[in-house]
């Protein structure tokens, strides 16, 4: 019932709405959201003293007396200010927003992680000039100020590079991952300085013999910390650090049993106390009781899975950059095979090695299915020539060889069947992802239990009622996914409905036009066993109408 994704939606013009000045340093001004726009922007607002931040940046650049130019950049979780001094030198200030992670711990862990890596490995990480993990005066917020990285972001250079440069760049980056993975750690969690504001009982002292000591403590990465705006557990008013530590105690894992139990506890803690009137509208969402049942079943399944030697052998504690994305990698402008900098170590943590298996970073990833393929449209693929496909394949093979031959604990080729780890990837986000996702993994694992040579019987055995419900829920879920890809193909947005600020007015009108097309298509098919207007309205992913 979806219109063709190649037929672009007409975009009426003339809609006006109040805009925040782009030079406002406190508000989020890079874009807007077609879903929960006010909440998304409010969650990224930071109250601080911008003048004091500028003065501190000047102090850190020898000889500088003033800032002649500055640029604000904004990601999902941080504000970044690039300051250019009257001497020509540059400094970069990064300020985490309230959804970046737990207050104090996120910044402390990032600086400690960078400091530790710089003391152990030859990695091109820009020097940190100053940092604070408190909101004390004069600046009034947490921050990290670093030297500006020389070179250009890899994503700007990648399309200009030839296949040989791609392969050499991929090889250099893969070997950097090898360096990170070579470090040994005694536990899972996040890395901190020994004097981090964490209770002593929640620290594992680590590498105490070289100047500033370190410890492994509560996990402050996105697996355990829900970075979704609107979650009351993380959007509440500031609380004492003791309360934060008490909450993160569920997330601090020093062995695989505790790690897996922590995922279940995290998934349970994210369930609302009462049915969410917004998300529970989705027909495949599942009730709170269903999610509790699925989480209990997942816990029983995982308790058996983690006794399997294949999982234990793939669970070595490993620390690898959490977002090894082209935008976080800088290369030489003259020779893009030379890596000049790796930035944004926020949320990098010590995880079981199996989380990195069968995952390839952007520069080495095989192409994902196109939107037209997912929508079931047969179109001639002119986006990639045979040489392009060969180029991508060589990069993927180069990365795979390094991971398999040089990093045994993260080996791709010899890694266990991914079905063994599927529950681990979904149980902690069951409410966000809906019941259909976790239930599908449980059903699949139950069906393959003997094939996977697992001991005994699978603790989860779906009833006929659950199988029928999963069939219906999967159909609804697929419809919404097809709708989302249709919107992304036609409106140049993502699954969150984000659009650049300059396109906001036209995006709102395009969204309304798309919504009416969607509802009209549902109305025309109503009574023929198709979706129907009421369900079509519920499945619309954006609150903008």
TrEMBL record:
Q: Where is the signal peptide?
A: none
Domain named Aminoglycoside phosphotransferase is located at 308-352
**InterPro entries, alphabetically?**
Aminoglycoside_PTrfase, Kinase-like_dom_sf, Mito_inheritance_9
- Localisation per UniProt entry: Mitochondrion
Q: Which SUPFAM superfamilies match?
A: Protein kinase-like (PK-like) (SSF56112)
Task: Give a yes or no for keyword Mitochondrion in this entry.
Answer: yes
> To which protein family does this belong?
Belongs to the AIM9 family.
Q: What is this protein called?
A: Altered inheritance of mitochondria protein 9, mitochondrial
């Amino acid at each position: 019932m979806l219109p063709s994704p190649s037929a672009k939606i007409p975009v009426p013009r003339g809609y006006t709405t109040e805009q925040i000045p782009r030079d406002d340093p406190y508000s989020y001004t890079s874009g807007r959201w077609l879903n929960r726009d006010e909440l998304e922007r409010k969650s990224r607002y930071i109250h601080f003293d911008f003048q004091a931040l500028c003065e501190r940046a000047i102090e850190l650049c020898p000889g500088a007396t003033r800032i002649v130019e500055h640029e604000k950049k904004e990601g999902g979780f941080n504000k970044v200010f690039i300051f250019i001094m009257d001497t020509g030198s540059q400094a970069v200030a990064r300020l985490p927003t309230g959804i970046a992670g737990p207050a104090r711990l996120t910044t402390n862990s990032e600086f400690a992680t960078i400091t530790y890596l710089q003391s152990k490995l030859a990695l091109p990480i820009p020097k940190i000039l100053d940092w604070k993990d408190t909101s004390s005066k004069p600046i009034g917020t947490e921050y990290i100020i670093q030297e500006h990285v020389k070179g250009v972001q890899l994503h700007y250079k990648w399309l200009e590079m030839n296949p040989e440069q791609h392969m050499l760049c991929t090889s250099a980056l893969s070997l950097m991952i090898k360096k990170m993975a070579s470090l040994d750690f005694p536990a899972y969690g996040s890395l901190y300085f020994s004097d981090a504001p964490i209770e002593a009982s929640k620290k594992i002292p680590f590498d105490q013999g070289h100047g500033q000591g370190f410890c492994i403590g509560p996990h402050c990465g996105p697996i355990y910390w829900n970075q979704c705006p609107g979650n009351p557990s993380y959007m509440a008013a500031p609380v004492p650090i003791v309360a934060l530590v008490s909450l993160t105690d569920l997330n601090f894992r020093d062995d695989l049993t505790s790690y897996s139990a922590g995922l279940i506890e995290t998934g349970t803690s994210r369930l609302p106390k009462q049915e969410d009137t917004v998300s529970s509208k989705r027909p495949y969402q599942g009730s709170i009781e269903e999610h509790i049942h699925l989480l209990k079943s997942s816990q029983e399944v995982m308790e058996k899975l983690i006794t399997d030697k294949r999982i234990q052998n793939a669970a070595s504690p490993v620390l690898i950059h959490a977002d090894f994305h082209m935008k976080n990698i800088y290369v030489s402008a003259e020779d893009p095979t030379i890596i000049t900098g790796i930035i944004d170590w926020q949320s990098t943590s010590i995880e079981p090695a199996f989380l990195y298996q069968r995952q390839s970073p952007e520069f080495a990833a095989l192409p994902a299915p196109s939107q037209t393929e997912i929508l079931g449209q047969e179109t001639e693929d002119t986006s990639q020539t045979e040489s392009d496909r060969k180029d991508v394949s060589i990069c993927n093979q180069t990365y795979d060889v390094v991971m398999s031959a040089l990093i045994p604990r993260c080996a791709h080729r010899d890694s266990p069947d991914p079905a063994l780890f599927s529950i681990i990837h979904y149980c902690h986000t069951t409410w966000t992802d809906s019941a259909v996702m976790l239930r599908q993994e449980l059903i699949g694992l139950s069906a393959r239990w003997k094939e996977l040579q697992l001991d005994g019987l699978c603790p989860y055995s779906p009833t006929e009622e659950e199988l029928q419900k999963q069939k219906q829920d999967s159909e609804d879920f697929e419809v919404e996914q097809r709708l989302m890809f249709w919107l992304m193909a036609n409106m140049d947005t993502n699954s969150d409905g984000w659009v650049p600020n300059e396109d906001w007015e036209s995006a709102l009108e395009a969204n309304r036009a798309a919504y009416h097309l969607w509802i009209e298509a549902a109305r025309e098919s109503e009574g023929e066993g198709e979706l129907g207007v009421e369900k079509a309205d519920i499945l619309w992913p954006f609150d903008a109408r």
